[in-house]
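Recall that a protein's primary structure is simply its ordered list of amino acids. Everything else, from secondary elements to tertiary packing, is in principle encoded there. The following example makes that idea concrete.
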Amino acid sequence: MQLEFDLTRDDYAALTFARSPSATVTRRRWLLLAVLLTLVAALMGLLTFLTGGTAWVDDAPLLRPLLYLIGAALGAFAAVSALVAGLRVWVRRLPRDDGATLGRHQIELEEAGFHVEGRSGRAFVRWSGVVEVLEVEAHVFLYVDRMMAYVIPKRAFATAGDCARFVEFARSHVTVRVK
């Protein structure tokens, strides 16, 4: 089986974040956080309205530290989220436009391994050198180490069936798995 495709900055970033939570999971986490924050704010507003002020905060000795803890947790979550977003932008900028990572690539599967060709030349990788075949939403990764993989965007396949056959063939030839 032979494929030809263009690797983009998004494909490169997908490799870096292949094992991180999907965008759907991240959106669900943000939605849950927003709902919880809204509930806490609504409860605080209701208590303030019912008691005619914020004296209820001082009536419960552990409430003020709890509110500080909630604020610190929300701040930490926001800081980590901003850091991850910044990291995604930084990773997309890493490959050079004239380097070997981006641009036109070809891959050809054989019984002994696969040939891959790009701007920098042609290489042959034996199946014994592949430690994992990972299929995610928009890509297939042929890992040769924990962080190094050959990226095949699913848009390179004519049909979903072609992609499934590619993944099945590759997995049937890979004996070592990364844990």
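The first helix runs from residue 9 to 16. The CA atoms of residues 6 and 103 lie 5 Å apart.
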